[in-house]
Amino acid sequence: MNESLAHIERIGWINPKYQRLEVKIVDESLQRLKPGESILVRFMDVDDSEIDNWDPYLREQWWPSGYTKEGLLLVERPFSHRYQAQQEISVIGPVGQPYRFRKSLRNVLLVAFDTPPLPLTIMIRQLVHNNISVTLVLLGQAREYETKHLPPETEVIHGTDSIEWADQVLTLGWADQMFVVVKQDDEHMRFAEFMQRVGELRTDIPKNYIFGVFQPLLPCGVGACGACMMRVDGEMLTSCTKGPTFDLTTIKLPT
């Protein structure tokens, strides 16, 4: 875990709702984040007009979406957040552990339920490059996320407002691994809803099959404050250091 300075080189347009930041990071150890790792950022130069909305304690969690040929970090952010070119930021990272993929992986199912799939998109190019089939399912509010900028090999399925999509049984059986991200308002409840739906369609849910990507608020990012503590297989673990992904069969979820 390191703290370093960075600045926003360029700001581009992805679609009407999302912008892409190209970020130059000074610390070499943070220049090549692996899928699953994120960074916590705080702005060094705060505009007076934004001071009422600035929280000096909680940093923004940014999920990388890739890198430019020049090695600049790519980050997708909604247009509801305003940034400026050459804006300087303080960066803490890497936060979390890389995603764990099976060695015999052939087919991956990614699911976003009522939240943008930003924690998932960085893995898509890597998986496609390794000739692994990727299906991205967008449910509820996630259906508003436009996907034209993703690799064309990615199969995108738009589901319903609930946890349903076309050929659901076939898709669940086809996947060797699943990674699921849900809205942050009540992650445990939403993951419980998802697992209940999968349980209705499968006779069993094996271990190391469905992984939840948890996004709790991270006051420190180093496991010191205990704010992101969760029970995994009877053991208390901090999401910021042991996550963000956990096998959902090992999590105590509400019934």
Describe the fold and architecture.
The protein has helices at 118-129, 168-174, 187-201, 239-242, and strands spanning 2-15, 18-25, 38-43, 60-62, 64-67, 73-78, 88-95, 107-113, 133-139, 155-158, 177-182, 210-213, 229-232, 235-238, 245-247. It is α/β, with parallel strands linked by helices. The strands form 3 sheets. It has a 7-stranded antiparallel beta sheet. A 6-stranded mixed beta sheet has the order 10-9-8-11-12-15, with helices on both faces. The radius of gyration is 18 Å and the shape is globular.
How is this fold's topology laid out?
Elements: E1 2-15, E2 18-25, E3 38-43, E4 60-62, E5 64-67, E6 73-78, E7 88-95, E8 107-113, H1 118-129, E9 133-139, E10 155-158, H2 168-174, E11 177-182, H3 187-201, E12 210-213, E13 229-232, E14 235-238, H4 239-242, E15 245-247
Parallel strand pairs: 8-9, 8-11, 9-10, 11-12
Antiparallel strand pairs: 1-2, 1-7, 2-6, 3-4, 3-7, 5-6, 12-15, 13-14
